[in-house]
Amino acid sequence: MENKIAVYRKEHFNAAHRLHNTDLSDVENASLFGKCNYPNYHGHNYELIVKVIGEVDPKTGFVIDLKLLSDLIKEHVIEKFDHKNLNLDTIEFKNLNPTAENIAIVIYNILRTKLDKKYDLKIVLYETERNYVEYPA
Amino acid sequence: MENKIAVYRKEHFNAAHRLHNTDLSDVENASLFGKCNYPNYHGHNYELIVKVIGEVDPKTGFVIDLKLLSDLIKEHVIEKFDHKNLNLDTIEFKNLNPTAENIAIVIYNILRTKLDKKYDLKIVLYETERNYVEYPA
Amino acid sequence: MENKIAVYRKEHFNAAHRLHNTDLSDVENASLFGKCNYPNYHGHNYELIVKVIGEVDPKTGFVIDLKLLSDLIKEHVIEKFDHKNLNLDTIEFKNLNPTAENIAIVIYNILRTKLDKKYDLKIVLYETERNYVEYPA
Amino acid sequence: MENKIAVYRKEHFNAAHRLHNTDLSDVENASLFGKCNYPNYHGHNYELIVKVIGEVDPKTGFVIDLKLLSDLIKEHVIEKFDHKNLNLDTIEFKNLNPTAENIAIVIYNILRTKLDKKYDLKIVLYETERNYVEYPA
Amino acid sequence: MENKIAVYRKEHFNAAHRLHNTDLSDVENASLFGKCNYPNYHGHNYELIVKVIGEVDPKTGFVIDLKLLSDLIKEHVIEKFDHKNLNLDTIEFKNLNPTAENIAIVIYNILRTKLDKKYDLKIVLYETERNYVEYPA
Amino acid sequence: MENKIAVYRKEHFNAAHRLHNTDLSDVENASLFGKCNYPNYHGHNYELIVKVIGEVDPKTGFVIDLKLLSDLIKEHVIEKFDHKNLNLDTIEFKNLNPTAENIAIVIYNILRTKLDKKYDLKIVLYETERNYVEYPA
After folding, report:
1. pLDDT of D112
2. What is the pLDDT at residue F3?
3. Residue D33 lies in a domain
């Protein structure tokens, strides 16, 4: 493990959402999610940290070119979610409750298919400065 | 002026909004506001800093009790805007475009009526870490 | 492990303390702890991050409701330590040196008994912006 | 005014204090200051920003050498307050309530006598990330 | 003044520099600037905050479109200084010592010519988290 | 593992560098590293976090005295790299491309020899607020 190194790239997007499980009644949703379930949505400045673990390429001194990683995140994640309503504007959360946990897992699954298998991948997502998640743990 | 001192209290709220001038056509709105005009809203973690300027009360050593100021902000501003859709859920932005500038002015006007006239008041509002406003300048 | 996810909640408290091992002489304490041993205490804004690891509940989309976790931390940790003198006002540090390491372990032990066994738990405690600890490592 | 420029230097110190007006009864103090009046003190990581306004010296390109300003702050402010109990260990707050407002004024008065009269001076003091003061306003 | 509002846009650039007054001897430069004068340069992540003061345009709700302001800063400031050696690669600092003060003044002068006269302009430049300047004061 | 705890100490240094593999042609270097390869260097405020993992010493309540750890980092890392040109002024990067990855590995190797073998060690290095690395992963 000593010869592996992790690199991190931080990006952000702004989105609206509401916590809502479409399989439950409105009463149950209100009880479970409180003000996060308000019908007309609220929103966040999401801070997204993508962690990629691998070996240093002796030619470049990089695990992965962070400029390329940033472009990858922008193309496949930021473009999709930035300035969007997660519940209404995205296929991913049409039937999936857009909690920070689920958003992180969705982003992981998107980037996992775009990233060479030799790399390990981890997603950290800040919903607010005080609430954030990491996947996989 | 040397005997005046400023105190600051930082609070936050999360809200959805879209930039939209109800007096303009959809085409004009899209042209003026770009992705900030997307129809289904996006959102932000708004960081709100309330600055109160006055003299130090020799009895308390305070300009104003920041606990009371915090309660005032929570009761009259945070309760009104937190986890809301500014365009749909608030009277203030029914016909007023909820730009950071206009939100700061609205918050100023709310707090100005609640605060003793002996104090000067200033509002700083962060829409994102990189975009923020201050009123009055 | 891929199906586990971590959630983090950040809280804070302000407390006074001094580093002092009650089993050692004053001379030894002064030599070991320097200005951190000054007799009349100093203090910190402690930033506390509680990390809970588990599986996502498909009903809520949560590992754990962060509002409930926040309430738990406030009730059992913040209430106990906030605006207190750790050495004088708390049972936990009557005979235990309140280093950041020991405070983190004490908080871990408190929360471990309050949290369902299905969750893993980790505590990060910032004593200053430049000095912090994590338990368990 | 266009040819004046401000330079800022940020330092910090950790101290214990309690809010207490020695001219008032214990009951009045408890009522005015709540948990900030607890008898055994609490504490903070104070962040201190010293702002110096003047003209750029064409020889150095500096308003003032920030290394010298930092040394000045350390010698006359940090040495005095760091790792101290403001109420018990300092002359300045023996009979003066150590609110953030009063600490900022005391620091201003100390540095004003050490700084060339050609400079204007302002003090910003963070007691917590959410509560801070500025003197003069 | 009550009807004026300030908007802020934060950008950043990374650059190398050394403090060196080309009119002075090497001995004098070393004495004045210490390690900041080392011959082979060092560098910083400069954080640049551009403050624009004006009235809110009732049509847009903006003082100025922050997207346009950001583009203006990127075109005329960031392109010029980012990933450059300020002493060697720029006309502006060929004979001007690249202190934070002078860099802020140079940036002010560049942007002042690009910005409508109806706006007031202020530059804040962070050289490090603990050293920063503001022009005009 | 439950009885191990990690302590962190944050330090910083400012340095110039350029990304350049001395075994490759100028054309290849320019193609691989873009503006990070500009010939006259650029620079960064590097934030360095040193993580030390061990058991709490019952006498001190410390894993390691963070004052001693800070002194160790300053003597062996900060003195070597602060206000330097990594490519020109240091032996370590004479023939090694000073990417964040390689700088972190070099710092790890330096501190590993200075630190008691009973401790585990990890290095986190921020090149910018948005790009950082961790070694070992």
Report:
1. 98
2. 82
3. no
The pLDDT value recorded for residue B46 is 98
Dig out the tokens for F6 from the structure. 């990690």
Quote the domain boundaries for residue F51. 4-16+43-135
What chains are in contact with C, requiring at least 3 Cβ pairs below 8 Å? A, D, F
| Locus of tokens 């749909």 | B88
Q: For the segment A71-98, what is each residue's pLDDT rounded down to a tens digit?
A: 999 999 999 999 999 999 999 999 999 9
Interface of B with E (CB under 8 A): 19, 21, 24, 32-34, 96-102, 104-105, 129-137
Selection from E4, E6, E10 nearest residue E52 by Cα: E6
- Does residue B55 carry a catalytic annotation? no
CATH no. for residue F98?
Answer: 3.30.479.10
Query: In the 3-class helix/strand/coil scheme, how is F78-130 assigned residue by residue?
Result: HHHHCCEEHHHHCCCCCCCCCCHHHHHHHHHHHHHHHCCCCCEEEEEEECCCC
Tell me whether residue E76 is in a domain. yes
Cross-chain residue pair B14–A85, CB shorter than 8 Å: no
**pLDDT 10s digits, F62-79:** 999 999 999 999 999 999
ipTM of the complex: 0.96
Verify whether residue F83 is a known catalytic residue: yes
Q: What distances in angstroms separate CA D72 from CA C9, D98, E130, F11, one per listed residue?
A: 39, 22, 15, 22
- Region of F70 (left: φ > 0; alpha: ψ -120 to 50; beta: rest) is alpha
SS3 D101: helix
Residue D55 falls in the annotated catalytic set: no
Among the partner-chain residues D9, D53, D60, the one whose CB lies closest to the CB of E32 is D60
Would you say residue E92 lies in a domain? yes
Give the nearest partner residue to B62 out of D24, D99, D130, using CB atoms.
D99
Inter-chain residue contact A19 with C61, CB threshold 8 Å: yes
How many domains does one find in chain E?
1
Residue D121 maps to a domain: yes
Indicate contact of D with F: 3+ CB pairs under 8 A: no
Half-sphere exposure of B23 (CA within 13 A, CB side): 7
